[in-house]
Structures are given as C-alpha cells and as structure tokens.
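Obj: model holo form, ligand = acetoacetyl-coenzyme A.
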Amino acid sequence: MGINTFGVIGAGQMGSGIAQVAAMSGLNVIMSDIKDELLEQGVEAIEKILQRGVDKRKLDGTEKEEILNRITTTVDIKDVASADFVVEAATEYEPVKFEIFENLDQICAANVILATNTSSIPIGRIAARTKRSEKIIGMHFMNPVPVMKLVEIIRGLDTSDDTFQTTWDLALKFGKTPAEAKDYPGFIANRILMPMINEAIYCLYHGVGTREDIDTVMRLGMNHPMGPLSLADLIGLDTCLAIMDTLYDGFKDSKYRACPLLRKYVEAGWLGRKTGRGFYDYT
Ligand code: CAA
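Output (holo structure tokens):
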C-alpha cells in the first residue's frame, strides 16, 4: 500500500519531531492531540527547528513553508481516519496508549498499520487491545527526532512480515537507520540506556559526585555527546521513571529498581527541560 498521508498521535517533543521528519520526507501529516494549545506548541517547535535550518542555509524559506503546509492538526482523533499509516507518540502511560489504540482500531481502515513510539511498553500488550494484532508494531524514534539517526523497530508476537517491511521502509524514507529489537521490556535502546542513567542518578543520590562531575565523567571519559543527567533532563524524568518501572515490572529483577531520587523529582514535578527544572535549572 502506498503511504501518502501519515497520522501522528501526540504533539509533544516526540510526536512533533516525528511529524516534522514525515513532512520533510514529502508525506502529508495529520497530527492529533487532545488540546489545541498542545498542537500549537508542537507546530511552534517544528517551525523553530525549521527556521534554524533556514538560518544555517540548509533549507530555504519556500521549503520551510512547504513542509509546514503539509502538516495539519486536529483535536479530534477521528480525523486521522484518512491516514495510510499511524504512529502513536502519546504519553508513556499504559491506560492512555490502550485507549488510543482501541480508538484507532475503530477509526482507521483495516489495512492501516498502527505503530507505537512506546519506549518500553510491550507491543503485544498494546496489540491485544486491537483486532489487528498483525498490523501493530513498535516504531521507536530517538530524541531529538530530527537529529537522531536510529529508529528501533519492534515486532510483537503477531506482527506480520508485511507490516515489518513497510515500517522498515518508512524509516528509511525518513532518512533514518532502522534496527530490529524483539518485544522484551525496554527493547534494546532503553534496556541499556536507562539503567545507565538510573545508575548516574544513584551516584548523585549517594553523593559519589556532583551532577556536573557525573556528567563530565561520561562526556569526556566515554565520549558521550551529553552527560546522563543532562540526557535524563532532555528525555523527561517522568519518561525515565516510567521506563525503569516497566523494566522492573517486566523482569521482576531488583537491578532495575528506579532510584528514589528520580521518583522524588518526578513527584515534585521536576521533569527536566520541559518543566524548566530537573537535575539542572533551565529557567
Ligand atoms: N531538535 C532538533 N534539532 C536539534 C535539537 C532539537 N531538540 N537539538 C539540537 N539540534 C540540532 C542542532 O540544530 C544542530 O543541527 P545542525 O547540525 O544542522 O547545525 C545539531 O542538532 C547539533 O546541535 P548543537 O550543536 O546545538 O548541540 P550538540 O552538538 O551538543 O547536539 C544533541 C545536541 C544532538 C542533543 C547531542 O547532544 C546528542 O546527541 N545528545 C544525546 C541524545 C540522545 O542520546 N538521544 C537519545 C535519547 S533516548 C531516546 O530518545 C529514547 C527513549 O525512549 C528515551
């Protein structure tokens, strides 16, 4: 099936980033979220990143406008009915994802693939909420989406070869490099990344180092582009906690317990860059 119209559920940092790369690859995009205000913020973020491209002469003003014109927004998920392929990038909270997939299953034509950008929720668990488990797949983008090359593609138990191939090809069309992971908690990316970030938070919690020293060790000692605490702030501490809890619940192994300091920050609403405060202050 040809894919011309691409649906994105969620206009947050992942959803808007996915909408941007889809529009840049020439697809018409319908981006849906629950509030106009969230959609406006999402489009504003895309506009800002594209403008940076114009300023750096990587893009001209006409191309920028064409990309933006390919993106329409809606607060009514039913408008996604005309999409040929949908990616859900809503909050990393199971009940929300389940509801979205139950809705999409009703709304979208039977041949439409429904992908999830979940960072750790089992694909099979989401697929079980629909009547098209062979068309459910994980399409996990990395943050910031326009910059990061990887898309982790995760097959559920029931995902068909055709669904897998279409999703793989779409990632290539977006200019990304896909990698396949099996459907186990955290897949590959977060099974390795999140315990590393969590351990960095434990280092801070135990007073082994300051936040700056912990980040400097990993930046300059391991050549990571940013330290783990800065990266946690970029990803969102709520997302980090949700992923650690998914790993812990999924494996029932204490090595995946979230650091109490991470939980405390999330409870206080310190979610990282998006709230202006996390391990660092962004206000
Ligand atoms: N959105 C779009 N573009 C961005 C961006 C953003 N938020 N932040 C930076 N960029 C672009 C810049 O415009 C710049 O583009 P050009 O090369 O075209 O000029 C380029 O990225 C480099 O940016 P900077 O020079 O400002 O800064 P940098 O070199 O330090 O790079 C970074 C910034 C790309 C974020 C880099 O620090 C990095 O790669 N960090 C690690 C990111 C990472 O690990 N992401 C994965 C997170 S895990 C995940 O997403 C999965 C999950 O499920 C949790």
